[in-house]
DNA sequence: ATTTAATTGTGACAATTATCACTATTAAGC
DNA sequence: GCTTAATAGTGATAATTGTCACAATTAAAT
């Protein structure tokens, strides 16, 4: 990637992407920084600064070209770098994520799910099969997968994580409410719904 | 709240809370800033700065008292300010969130779920009943609920959001992949899984 | 053609957040 | 008791992020 895109900008880019896609569907020819800013409740100059980072130029009194913007955002965020991943834990959350169509669009390819519940094994979700977790090691090396999305319950979380690491998984996107212990060379990303809510609550709810 | 806690600190506090709870379960009498820092892959001085914000003092060569810390974090994050909420959309994601036990602990009380699918109506999830969405308006005013967790599919998302707003909902925690349009006085919090992943991907995955 | 008003682009600044380096404290070992 | 080493506390500084104000541009109106 040419320029490093700051974390917050990455987050906003995905929002811009959604909104811009809407505009394209509605066949709009232009979109202005203040339209975007208004939808996201942010400052319009920030939108323009963000686009500057992408070397996008708009036209005064007109705005930006949605198609062009969309493409640039996709390239910047690397939607084209396909990455393969497994979902580990086929409970409601795992299934929800397996059905989440945005992952594909954004370059994250869910290849299969894993669970231990015999009733779930061999089920299909969105063309993705659920395997018994004992199959994970072989499939990971066969399919060259090193990203796991961990959606098991709290209790087995650490044990399953340890197993994933033994199986060659290098990146864990952790949806469990545990802070996993892992060696330094394993990258863990904690999805933290409570933190997210509390930030919302602190900021907005009196 | 006495002092304003910065957003990032709120996020870390929830992680500290998890880890500290573990320590308490293991009956540890002390926890050091570097133990916490190590688990979260951050700088230990940051942990200490965070605790300073809470007016917590540790003991040199010993660390902090887990029980004391836990209590302080809970008070700071306002776990005791109970807030009532509805989940709107009883798909996998809605059900996953309904079962997510941490919400209760952190002061977010899910009172009921809503859907339109006749097969789901009247089912119970974790003592929470699923109602037809037409019941929402009455129940919201009856139970004094103004927070909705929106977990419907992409397509109906905006329409459902409009309906929620008409029904008196003031805060929407939006799990759909849409950027909702809403009047300024409605607070929308977009949960953005893709942004979260992309931040992870940009930072950690080469 | 001229004027007007909307919009971008951007420098200056402000606020927030993280890191570093160092001091002070004190439990533990001798 | 004295020394050592681990740990907290903290000021200085750096990096990141957001806001504001305003000049430059230009489409649209006249």
Descriptive report:
The structure is a homodimer of 206-residue chains. Chain A has 206 residues and is an alpha/beta fold. The first copy, chain A, has two domains: 7-77, Winged helix-like DNA-binding domain superfamily/Winged helix DNA-binding domain (Arc Repressor Mutant, subunit A, Orthogonal Bundle); 83-195, NAD(P)-binding Rossmann-like Domain (Rossmann fold). In chain A, 44% of the residues lie in helices and 16% in strands. Chain A is built from nine helices and seven strands; from the N terminus they run ααααβααβββαβαββα. A seven-stranded mixed sheet of chain A has the order 3-4-2-1-5-6-7. In chain A, helix 8 links the parallel strand 5 (147-150) and strand 6. In chain A, helix 1 runs antiparallel to helix 4 (66-76) and helix 2 (33-40) packs across helix 3. The longest helix of chain A is centred in the N-terminal third of the chain and has 19 residues, at 7-25. Chain A is elongated. Chain A starts with 6 loop residues before the first helix and ends with a helix. The model of chain A has no long low-confidence stretch (mean pLDDT 93). The interface between A and B is large, with 59 and 59 residues. The structure holds a DNA duplex (30 and 30 nucleotides).
């Amino acid at each position: 990637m040419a320029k490093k895109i700051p974390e917050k900008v990455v987050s906003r880019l995905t929002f811009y992407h959604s909104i811009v896609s809407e505009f394209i569907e509605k066949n709009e020819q232009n979109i202005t920084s203040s339209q975007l800013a208004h939808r996201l409740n942010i400052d319009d100059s920030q939108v323009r600064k963000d686009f500057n980072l992408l070397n996008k130029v708009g036209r005064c009194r007109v705005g930006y070209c949605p198609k062009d913007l969309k493409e640039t955002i996709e390239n910047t965020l690397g939607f084209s770098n396909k990455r393969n991943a497994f979902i580990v834990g086929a409970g409601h959350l795992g299934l929800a994520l397996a059905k989440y169509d945005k992952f594909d669009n954004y370059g994250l390819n869910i290849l299969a799910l894993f669970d231990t519940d015999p009733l779930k094994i061999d089920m299909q979700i969105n063309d993705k099969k659920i395997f018994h977790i004992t199959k994970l090691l072989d499939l990971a090396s066969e399919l060259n997968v090193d990203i796991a999305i961990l959606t098991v319950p709290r209790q087995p979380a650490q044990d399953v994580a340890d197993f994933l690491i033994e199986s060659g998984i290098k990146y864990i996107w952790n949806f469990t409410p545990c802070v996993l212990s892992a060696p330094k060379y394993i990258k863990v990303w904690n999805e933290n719904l409570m933190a997210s809510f509390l930030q919302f609550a602190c900021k907005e709810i009196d």
